[in-house]
Specification:
The chain is built from four helices and nine strands. The chain is α+β, with helices and mostly antiparallel strands and 188 residues long. The strands form three sheets. The protein has a four-stranded mixed beta sheet with strand order 6-7-8-9. Strand 6 and strand 7 form a beta hairpin. The chain is elongated and about 55 Å long.
């Protein structure tokens, strides 16, 4: 995170011949200018490498954010307020996705809970209907959590998202996995 703060105020006092004094500020700074640089692994949001560098930069510009692309890294420069708004939108999107999964009667998901930092997701399921293929839902949570964490300033190597599938009737953990485990398995 890089921050640049400008500040300062200077005043000059001028003595008039009649003995009256007046102050006139030479420089006034009303607000500090601060930016946050967020480094994101391009592969987190462009898995198929379908976007051009220009498309990534243009999409950021549309949101009032500067972006530069350097290989597999995209650096977004924004204000702290823009970053906070993005993080809130990401949490809201994750909640909407979770609610959609719960509403979809074709799967066994009965509830999805996650923490504020999006490092841990608990997926409650109907144990009688749960099948191992449904554990593939964890991939979506891994990506949402990892992207959120990177926008929140967590380094790429420090990101982890744990997803646990829990029988809603018994509380038994049926399956657990993590983003870091998935990455290690993909590298083998």
């Amino acid at each position: 995170m890089a921050a640049l703060a400008l500040g300062g105020c200077s005043a000059a006092t001028v003595q008039s011949p009649a003995g009256a004094s007046s102050s006139a500020p030479a420089i006034e700074v009303e607000e500090a200018v601060t930016t946050v640089d967020v480094r994101i692994a391009r592969s987190l949001f462009d898995q198929d490498d379908a976007l051009t560098d220009e498309q990534i930069v243009a999409a950021a510009r549309e949101k009032g954010i500067a972006a530069t692309v350097d290989g597999d890294t995209v650096v977004y420069s924004m204000t702290p307020a823009q970053q906070a708004e993005m993080l809130e939108q990401m949490r809201s999107s994750a909640r909407d996705t979770a609610d959609d999964l719960v509403a979809d009667e074709t799967n066994a998901v009965t509830a999805v809970d996650f923490d504020e930092a999006m490092t841990s997701f608990t997926v409650s399921v109907d144990g009688a209907r749960y099948g191992m293929l449904q554990s593939l839902l964890a991939l979506g949570f891994y990506l949402q959590g990892a992207l959120f964490q990177q926008f929140n300033g967590v380094g790429a190597d420090d990101i982890d998202v744990v997803v646990s599938f829990v029988d809603d009737a018994t509380g038994e953990v049926l399956d657990t996995g993590s983003y870091q485990e998935m990455r290690k398995n993909l590298q083998q």
